[in-house]
């Protein structure tokens, strides 16, 4: 159905295109706010344009849903759809920090089939195929086997007092990379309690799941993609043995905030 070598090449080229204008290498970059506190750069638009052209040529039958493209409801009539965040973690990107990635997933009937994250500033290229596992730089990934929630590693800047028994680890701005940390056994738990978009989580969610992590919305329900409203409330990626405990701990907060 798809040329995987070509897919990998396209994602890698998208990463190189972004890296060529990354301020972390001293490049000047045009940046503006889509709305207050939500920056976008010329690199986001250039990568989005490149991916739409190349992925469209790779699989003309697929629909398209991207953070930087106006939504076309024609995607809803497609059995296949590309979900793309051309630069996930734009805040880190525009500040010259490495915590950003190009995020691409192909979904079929609401479920991710293949996924890629390219984080060239970190030298990381992540891939997953449904039912065939996940890799980073070609090496297989295996999520944490942690069995107790207390002491779980969480990529965050700070934690509420009620979560004082958890352990902070480094937090890239890209939520996709934070989810991928769970896949790589560099974190045990990633949880959000806000409305987020499918393009933020589809690729990394498949990578985490294929590495053995449990992935759900904030209430523990399975995630579906290419919906009319392309949002989900919260994201929970966790070592499988602590997922239920994390859902229980977050249940009251999630109900209050949804």
Spatial shape: globular
Strand order of the largest sheet: 3-4-5-6-7-8-9
Q: Estimate percent helicity.
A: 25-40%
Low-confidence parts: none
Please give the structural blueprint.
Blueprint: H1 4-19, E1 31-35, E2 38-41, H2 42-58, E3 63-66, E4 80-88, H3 90-94, E5 101-108, E6 111-119, E7 124-129, E8 134-136, E9 139-140, E10 153-155, E11 167-169, H4 175-183, E12 189-197, H5 198-210, E13 214-216, E14 231-238, H6 243-257
Parallel strand pairs: 3-4, 10-11
Antiparallel strand pairs: 1-2, 4-5, 5-6, 6-7, 7-8, 8-9, 12-14, 13-14
Helix pairs in contact: 1-2, 4-5
Description:
The protein is α+β, with helices and mostly antiparallel strands and 258 residues long. Helices cover 29% and strands 29% of the residues. Strands 3-4-5-6-7-8-9 form a seven-stranded mixed sheet, sandwiched between helices. The chain has a three-stranded antiparallel sheet with strand order 12-14-13. A two-stranded antiparallel sheet has the order 1-2. Strand 1 and strand 2 (38-41) form a beta hairpin. The model has no long low-confidence stretch (mean pLDDT 96).
Primary descriptors:
6 helices; alpha+beta; seven-stranded mixed beta sheet; three-stranded antiparallel beta sheet; about 260 residues
Provide a compact summary of the structure.
The protein has 258 residues and is of the alpha+beta class.
